[in-house]
Amino acid sequence: MMKYIILSRWRKKPTKLMLDESVKLQEKAKKEGTKILGQYWTFGRYDTVTILEVPDEKAAMKALLRLGDLCTTETLVAISGEDAAKLVD
């Protein structure tokens, strides 16, 4: 499983309808094997931060492409600090 951190900005002021659509997209992604480990609304440059665990890159791409009408995203691949430390010589 791979982890991704998704930084996103709403394309326009969020509405109840947009939030409902977002929930539907999340449910669809869950059925395809995506786990949402955390989702936060934030102040500053980004409106939300979402942490996903997905089976592979294709599943991540599929889930993110669906969000294009609602928000813009910046996606970061994440590995644990423990795994990263093993890479240091």
Features:
single chain, 89 residues, alpha+beta, Alpha-Beta Plaits, four-stranded antiparallel β-sheet, globular
Written overview of the protein:
The structure is a single chain. This protein is an alpha+beta fold. The chain has a single domain (2-83), classed as Dimeric alpha+beta barrel (Alpha-Beta Plaits). 37% of the residues lie in helices and 35% in strands. A hairpin with a 6-residue loop joins strand 2 and strand 3 (48-54). The radius of gyration is 14 Å and the shape is globular. The two termini are 25 Å apart.
List the helices and strands and how they pair.
Elements: E1 2-10, H1 16-31, E2 35-41, E3 48-54, H2 57-66, E4 71-78, H3 81-87
Antiparallel strand pairs: 1-3, 1-4, 2-3
Helix pairs in contact: 1-2
Derived from helix and strand composition plus strand pairing, the structural class reads alpha+beta
First and last CA, distance: 25 Å
Q: Summarize the biggest pleated sheet.
A: 4 strands, antiparallel
What fold name stands as the CATH topology? Alpha-Beta Plaits
- What count of structural domains? 1
* CATH architecture label name: 2-Layer Sandwich
Summarize, please.
The protein has 89 residues and is α+β, with helices and mostly antiparallel strands. Helix content is 37%, strand content 35%. Helix 1 (16-31) runs antiparallel to helix 2.
